[in-house]
Inverse folding.
């Protein structure tokens, strides 16, 4: 009922619909509406602290889907809508010799309707069927000695893209995601970060680089010194590149199909068009030059930055600051935004979710 009211009339109508049904106060329902929104999406939930240390995902992937039930409490409200979850699967990488304390830490996840594809720092790539009983299948056996550490991993329905650091001339690995065939190995983007790439296997360091698929056949990647746009169809050919005099804060980098965003060493966020790398706008991110910053953006034109536990939102079309979120999180090591939600992971392993849909 809440979802139907929301879709046909608007967000505020959902609270009134549940209030009429259960005779609960409209204010009580509105306060719980974020929980109701969770019923409409499949959301991966990671709970607890990672055994591999703060700032890294544990090599255990837990997938859950929403469920709900009604709990009656005569002392308070006659009925309270609660959110539950149904556990589907727990995925572990296949065992192998460890080449460092963090070698099995997850460096990237690709999610489709049927599969979860996840990669670890040692270069292994596993494919698991959502809800399936079979163990994850190793699609690619990593070779740290010859390739370096797999520092970031992403993809789409056609490509998997890995960004490596540790061995010069082998920064990009590109696979055909349908056949799982390795199509290309080359690139010097991370050559200057080779030593840091090796250190990732044994200690906590700054982020080396990030890579994002921007369209079906292009990807954009950055380190603290360079940013490149590559053609996935044409052997990773560099279409465009740009250097930054003050460097980039890698954790602030993200992209959509049309734009990319990153904060430089002076605390200035720069938004560029993927096509041509022309600058769209820039804005100051307070405190970014002194403290770590984590950033993300969505296709609706919002840029999100977290500095010192404070999450702020900008309009990336014109660089106008919009608002900050009320909650304070402490240190954040991962964040993502889509058209409806912002999700952030704090250093204690807790996942925080906000709804910022327009109404």
């Amino acid at each position: 009922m809440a979802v139907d009211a929301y879709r046909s009339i608007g967000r505020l109508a959902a609270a009134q619909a549940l209030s009429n049904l259960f005779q609960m106060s409209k204010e009580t329902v509105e306060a719980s509406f974020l929980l109701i929104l969770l019923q409409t999406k499949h959301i991966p939930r990671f709970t607890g602290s990672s055994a591999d240390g703060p700032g890294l995902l544990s090599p255990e992937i837990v997938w859950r889907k929403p469920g709900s039930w009604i709990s009656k409490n005569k002392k308070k409200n006659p009925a309270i809508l609660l959110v539950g979850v149904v556990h589907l699967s727990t995925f572990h990488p296949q065992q192998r010799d460890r080449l460092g304390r963090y070698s099995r830490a997850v460096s990237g996840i690709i999610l489709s309707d049927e599969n979860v594809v996840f990669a670890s720092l040692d270069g292994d790539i596993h494919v698991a069927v959502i809800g399936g009983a079979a163990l994850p299948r190793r699609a690619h056996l990593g070779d740290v000695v010859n390739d370096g550490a797999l520092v970031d991993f992403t993809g789409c329905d056609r490509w998997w893209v890995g960004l490596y650091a540790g061995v010069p001339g082998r920064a990009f690995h590109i696979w055909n995601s349908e056949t799982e065939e390795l199509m290309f190995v080359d690139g010097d983007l991370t050559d200057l970060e080779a030593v840091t790439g090796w250190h990732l296997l044994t200690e906590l360091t700054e982020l080396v680089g990030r890579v994002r698929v921007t369209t079906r056949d292009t990807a954009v990647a950055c380190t603290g010194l360079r940013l490149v746009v590559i053609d996935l169809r044409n052997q990773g050919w560099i279409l465009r590149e740009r250097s930054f005099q003050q460097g980039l804060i890698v954790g602030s980098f993200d992209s959509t199909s049309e734009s990319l965003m990153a904060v430089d060493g002076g605390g200035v966020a720069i938004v560029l068009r993927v096509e041509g790398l022309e600058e769209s706008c820039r804005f100051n991110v307070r405190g970014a030059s002194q403290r770590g910053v984590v950033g993300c953006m969505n296709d609706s034109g919002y840029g999100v930055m977290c500095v010192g536990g404070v999450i702020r939102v900008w309009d990336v079309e014109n660089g106008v600051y919009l608002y900050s979120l009320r909650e304070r999180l402490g240190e954040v090591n991962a964040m993502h935004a889509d058209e409806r939600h912002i999700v952030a992971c704090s250093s204690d392993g807790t996942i925080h979710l906000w709804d910022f849909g327009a109404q």
About this structure: The longest strand covers residues 80-91. The helical segments are 2-8, 11-22, 26-31, 33-37, 144-147, 194-199.
